[in-house]
Amino acid sequence: MTVFERLPAWRQARATQVRAGLTLGFVPTMGALHDGHVSLVRRSQAENDCTLVSIFVNPAQFEDATDFAKYPRTLDGDLRILQGEGVDYVLAPSESDLYPDGFRYRVTEIERSKGLEGAHRPGHFDGVLTVVLKLLQIASAERAYFGEKDWQQLNLVRGLVEAFFLPTSIVACQTIREADGLALSSRNRRLGSKDRERASQFYRILSVALTADAASHKLREAGFIVDYVTDCQGRRLGAVRLGDVRLIDNVPLGETR
Amino acid sequence: MTVFERLPAWRQARATQVRAGLTLGFVPTMGALHDGHVSLVRRSQAENDCTLVSIFVNPAQFEDATDFAKYPRTLDGDLRILQGEGVDYVLAPSESDLYPDGFRYRVTEIERSKGLEGAHRPGHFDGVLTVVLKLLQIASAERAYFGEKDWQQLNLVRGLVEAFFLPTSIVACQTIREADGLALSSRNRRLGSKDRERASQFYRILSVALTADAASHKLREAGFIVDYVTDCQGRRLGAVRLGDVRLIDNVPLGETR
To answer: pTM, whole model, 2 decimals?
Structure first.
């Protein structure tokens, strides 16, 4: 496994792969890897000649400096996981390498980024779309892998690729869950044991409540602070908080009983 | 000369060129071609195996609907000029092809786009940067050619390429002028004969005035409405109006006498 900390070295390696006709799958991450990321990696390995995983905690997408500071950073463990999975390449760039412009240039989406997560995290999707555009250009991959857990993000990234005619196909991968249903997330490790137990009800309630309003009500009864629960285009999306840990999830409405 | 009105056909042609190892130079235009554009085309032809010229009057960069409506559209004449120059490819896409997103996705620059032209044309550079990013992705060229007449635009496009790691080199080309010094511009053809005569003083005064303030003063005396004249990083930039026609120009400060 080759770890690139600087962009030019990676770009040179990618140019060599392209000349050799090798296809690339790209898995962008913020590190703190879990089995959800591993599922993206395995899918990429199955569909491409090589796989690149990027690890970069993107300051531009944290509207809250505390959340950025508290975001788990576990680079050594991450690299062990990726090595164990037989990943070919890791890109772990510095902020100044990725933002030579100091975040002066931004990509923004003016409608669908404004509701749901965008309403609760102003500026969040500007940061996401900006860094994803940068990373997709740098990776120069045939395919890039995103989890369905971040449903709104996934759809905004699909729109980004269409709007700017990017040559990379976006591949959506199913949410990976703990045995009790909790969607895997790097933020889960910040849950205390009592909140961790409570958190399992998030998925269950989202899935079984008859309406979005009923789900909100049941979640509040179960001790969650509810940012939103909405049914939208065949999907129920929700965001809740337990203490200072914020969780999001979504389920297809067909599964709702 | 092959004229592409649809993007997929062009992209297929470009893929074939890339496989054949052919380099491409790209000249984005809004049509109404003049000798300034021709100089870009010739430079591209000298430096690349093939040349693509795009013709698209970009609604997103006109903050004023009247200016957009009045912008000269001369497609037949443009194609004759390009054919005469031996251009290989022309791309003349529709608005819906270029904006499948309906301009929901935008590129913005938050500092250097806000002064000068940006101050007088709010939103203008968002439209420019957004369409340039789209076109650079579609063209997939080794080099793209921009005129120095639009100095602020040229620098913002350079920044765009750096910020998003685009694989295209931006080549700056000298402003082409009429015999009396007036910088060639598609808007010049909208000047009446009296204003056309007056317009020649714009370049002369920008070049000879000792200070930016002195240039503003002389331009007003000569009958121009002055939007701005500023000395900035070794360059004097100005924007003036004659009736409803707006002219911009810039000169290196070294040439100031």
So the answer is: 0.96
